[in-house]
Design a protein that fits this description.
mainly beta, Tachylectin-2, Chain A, 6-stranded antiparallel β-sheet, 5-stranded antiparallel β-sheet
């Protein structure tokens, strides 16, 4: 059984920056050649008003529109990225460089299309992978809705897709299937919440999440040969836990449950197991699972840490912990020591933990 020796809280990351970036979520890491791309979701530019929540400027709940011009926020980008060249995270992540436009402003890596009104739609980050000279970034297309019943924001997932570009000019184009850039639709697993390239069998395994009719978040898996990565008809989905695959998504079976959406999957040499890390629903728990194969069978979730937050403000929504995942690029001692980020919605920066296994 997985046992934790120690945990160090390294706090929120990227807070001190040169771009007036005052909050961002998502926080996926994608190794490149000697560097690592960190891919983020909604990114806020401007300033924070002391004693005021980002989500309740002037005491009023934000609406579905872009937050640009709201409170102290000057600009809102729905996905951004930065590069880290140092994989030593023992004292936090300090040596980083945001990907920028020619004028020095932060660049939205997957831009909105002309018919995607920023007050209605957002393109949120998922995971990605670099294959030869191409860099692939998965994403979700989001439609913003009216006020939520509990949370200050409410949205609808329209589907997920894949963009391709280069880490030389950072320009990305969305790939299409049957004329649509939504490769997986609203009621289908949203690939890829995690990407894992197995050197053992040279398959790329993709993990996608969707809620069932009872509202239970379920994770599915598909695989593809790297040479067929842009051929979506070649993707195979797990249809039986005994390593049986089929190209018919309707036959796919879930491999585990309980993640809000984001997760990580890696092979941990120290454990001799595949390792998945994710938030456990909205409980505030960060959990890990292990398996002998990328598709499982996966263990029950083992709690790494219960996140507890002491709020400074009297807020109108419950504590929201999400987006937990491991960053294998940062791991030490063959994975005996790993690094995990999560997002606490009010703090709204990637919060870094160092976890050492027994």
């Amino acid at each position: 059984m997985l046992k934790i020796k120690s945990i160090r809280d390294l706090g929120p990351q990227f807070v001190k920056n040169d771009h007036k970036m005052v909050g961002q979520d998502g926080s996926y890491s994608i190794p490149l050649n000697g560097k690592c791309l960190w891919f983020f979701g909604d990114t806020l530019i401007g300033k924070r008003i002391p004693g005021e929540s980002l989500w309740y400027p002037g005491g009023e709940k934000i609406g579905p529109e872009s937050m640009a011009g709201t409170g102290g926020i000057e600009q809102m980008l729905t996905n951004t990225g930065l590069l880290i060249s140092n994989n030593n995270a023992e004292n936090g992540l300090h040596e980083f460089e945001y990907i920028r436009e020619p004028d020095g402003s932060l660049k939205q890596l997957i831009p909105l299309k002309p018919d995607e009104n920023p007050d209605e739609f957002r393109i949120w980050c998922l995971h990605g992978i670099k294959l030869k000279e191409k860099l692939y970034l998965f994403y979700q297309k989001i439609e913003m809705l009216g006020e939520g019943d509990i949370l200050p924001v409410n949205f609808k997932i329209l589907g997920s897709g894949l963009s391709v570009g280069s880490d030389k000019d950072w320009n990305f184009n969305r790939l299409t299937k049957n004329g649509s850039d939504l490769i997986w639709r609203e009621r289908e697993p949203q690939f890829a919440s995690a990407v894992f390239h197995s050197l053992k069998d040279d398959f790329i395994y993709l993990y996608g999440v969707i809620a069932n009719e009872a509202g239970v978040q379920q994770c599915y898996i598909c695989r593809v040969n790297p040479n067929d990565f842009e051929n979506f008809n070649s993707y195979e989905y797990l249809v039986d836990e005994n390593n049986v695959w089929d190209k018919d998504l309707k036959k796919a079976i879930p491999i585990f449950t309980g993640m809000p959406n984001e997760l990580s999957v890696s092979y941990n040499n120290y454990l001799g197991k595949y390792l998945s890390v994710h938030s456990l629903d909205l409980t505030g728990k960060i959990v890990a699972r292990t398996a002998d194969n990328p598709w499982g069978p996966w263990s029950h979730p083992i709690t790494i840490k219960q996140i507890k937050v002491k709020r400074k403000l009297d807020l109108k929504y419950p504590t929201l912990i999400y987006a937990a995942k491991e960053h294998p690029y940062l791991s030490k001692n063959d994975g005996k020591k790993i690094y995990i980020t999560y997002i606490e919605f009010e703090e709204y920066f990637p919060h870094l933990l160092e976890v050492e296994f027994e």
